[in-house]
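Exercise 7b. Backbone tokens:
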């Protein structure tokens, strides 16, 4: 996709040069920016660049994460996050499954494999800020494998 975008930019610039709208020095500068990845930086400044990860979170991230938690499929979750180039810790606070945090949902569904994976992917500060341990105690999950992983990770 990046190669196709570079080709479109290149043909547009060649056309502008042939019409004397750009000099060859301008073209070389643009090619250097594109090759260095500065085209994305400029688009971000312009406001026309959309971060694909943020857009994806608004769409399908929540549903596939909940599906993989419900089925306790750590490997598919891990592969999907890697494929989408998404770090769970960046989006954890905004994701819920049936009104529960991801760890609460994992405890409720006995998804120990996925739950412990999520605990390992979050920072200890994120785990301390959340009330997942308190929820576990109030809902009969205080002795779950996931609660133990949170305790060992945070030191509570």
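Sequence design result:
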């Amino acid at each position: 996709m990046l190669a196709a975008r570079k080709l479109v930019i290149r043909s547009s610039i060649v056309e502008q040069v042939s019409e004397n709208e750009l000099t060859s020095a301008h073209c070389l500068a643009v090619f250097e920016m594109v090759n260095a990845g500065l085209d994305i930086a400029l688009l971000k400044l312009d406001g026309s660049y959309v971060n694909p990860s943020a857009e994806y979170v608004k769409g399908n991230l929540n549903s596939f994460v909940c599906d993989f938690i419900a089925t306790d499929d750590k490997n598919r979750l891990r592969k999907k996050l890697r494929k989408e180039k998404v770090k769970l810790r960046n989006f954890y606070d905004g994701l819920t499954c049936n009104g529960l945090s991801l760890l609460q949902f994992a405890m409720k569904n006995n998804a120990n494999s996925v739950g412990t994976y999520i605990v390992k992917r979050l920072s200890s500060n994120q785990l301390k800020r959340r009330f997942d341990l308190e929820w576990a105690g109030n809902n009969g999950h205080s002795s779950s494998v996931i609660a133990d992983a949170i305790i060992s990770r945070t030191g509570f």
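Instructor comment: The chain is about 70% helix and 0% strand. The chain has a mean pLDDT of 77.
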